[in-house]
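REVIEWER CHECKLIST
Item 1: Sequence provided? yes
Item 2: Single chain? yes
Item 3: Sequence as submitted:
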Amino acid sequence: MSGMLRVACIQMRSSVHEQANIADMEQLVENAVSRGASYVQTPEMTGILQRNRAGLFAEISADQGNPVFAAAARLARKHQIWVHVGSTAIATQQDKAANRAALFSPTGERVASYDKIHMFDVDLDNGESWRESAVYVPGNQAVIAPVAGVNFGLAICYDLRFPQLFQAQAMAGAQMLTCPAAFTRQTGEAHWHALLRARAIENGAFVIAAAQGGKHEDGRETYGHSLVIDPWGVTIGELDHDEPGVLICDIDVERAKAARAKIPNLVNRREFSGPGSADAKRGAA
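Item 4: Structure as written out by the authors:
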């Protein structure tokens, strides 16, 4: 692990039409390449944001030959860069979809896939109600993958609220943690910055988070504010708005090693019994 890495977050406002979103992705990736990025991350649901189930399944396709992934592979190969599709909806055999991320190497080869583990099943104060589990099959496997000699952990949006996933990735050697997202405006305003900084600090790792932003064609509103956070919890770069755009940041990958040397909490961590265990009860007595 050494040297500098120029990374890009692609901020989008995906519509209900996959081909239009692919065209937007291609244009924004080209912009990032023109500014020297060697790793480009797109947001959650790059290919489509569609809350209507029938409309969603009319647009999406299976993994093999998926047009979003095919476009990302072409871009990676053409520009000899790493392209990380934050996620897109993939039709599965269970009459549901997978919320799937994919990472492509500079040869255009897919080197990793990740299915979102934690489903956004919530009821918010403003009347918004979401049941991702009604449409999507949750994943069950944490994933890390090497990018230019640096280990990246893959996660998606609501995963951000489950620190054990990121700790497992860091313990397995990830120095870069990712969380491409489509955070709602309400939850983003309240928690987006705090949660991303927390995941960076507690793991001594960079966090890279490309976001959806603005009022979408299907009626939802997302927060935007794509971010890159360093291992000390400092914001390296931010798109301080919800408009489509490109965030470029230079990362000194050695800073993860330095942060972990200062506060080695990953090494100092200890296993412990739960509060309801027999050992705990004996101690209380």
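Item 5: Key structural point noted by reviewer: The domain at 4-269 is CATH 3.60.110.10 (Nitrilase/N-carbamoyl-D-aminoacid amidohydrolase).
Item 6: Recommendation: ____
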